[in-house]
Specification:
189 residues, alpha+beta, 2 domains, five-stranded antiparallel beta sheet, two-stranded antiparallel sheet, 5 helices
């Protein structure tokens, strides 16, 4: 199974290292995150995690409507539309502000995408990240630079440097990758 068709969700079994899910990714399974290949099982898990609070909120609204004996259908429909608009705007804003970033740690560089590369760096430092090369001390990772283009640019960079991929989104830092990063830095200056 190629990287593009394999689920990228992290899996950790008790006593094992974090690995990538080995199931086949399904196109469009991840809803707003259609650029991230995940399998149907992980897609369902994500839906349960995010949909449950929304369902609770909707149930609460229905209860309130019933208690107040108002036009429930209109109130519920308006609330649903408002929530859909909110999540669509949030997803759009996130896609528009996402940047491709380069994080260096030791002899490796992580090429990723995030709406907030600095927050992503802090998460990697704090949690250890996902699918990092074995033995890497991520607490000393540093953000080198970011560039516009978000997930589209990230995908292009992953393809361009595929021959340097070590694990997940981590690539061996070679003169070729260093030269590219320097060219991005020079263009940003």
């Amino acid at each position: 199974m190629s990287y593009e068709t394999q689920c990228v969700a992290a899996v950790q079994r008790p006593g094992w290292e974090v690995t990538r899910c080995s199931r086949e990714a399904r196109p469009g399974m991840s809803g707003y995150l259609t650029l991230i290949p995940i399998c149907s099982w992980h897609s369902n898990q994500a839906r349960r995690q995010f949909a449950a609070p929304l369902q609770d909120e909707l149930d609460d609204l229905k209860r309130q409507v019933a208690e107040h004996e108002c036009d429930g259908d209109k109130a519920v429909a308006a609330h649903i539309e408002e929530r859909e608009d909110y999540f669509e705007a949030r997803a759009k804003r996130w896609k528009e502000t996402a940047q491709a970033y380069f994080i260096r740690c030791g002899e490796y560089v992580k090429i990723g995408a995030s709406a907030s590369p600095l927050n992503r760096l802090e998460t990697i430092r704090r949690t250890g990240g996902v699918l990092a090369p074995t033995g890497l001390d991520l607490s000393v990772a540093e953000l080198i630079i970011s560039e516009p283009g978000g997930f589209t640019r990230e995908r292009e960079l992953h393809a361009k440097f595929a021959h340097l991929r070590e694990a997940g989104e981590w690539f061996r830092e070679t003169p070729e990758l260093t030269a590219y990063i320097e060219s991005v830095s020079e263009a940003a200056a």
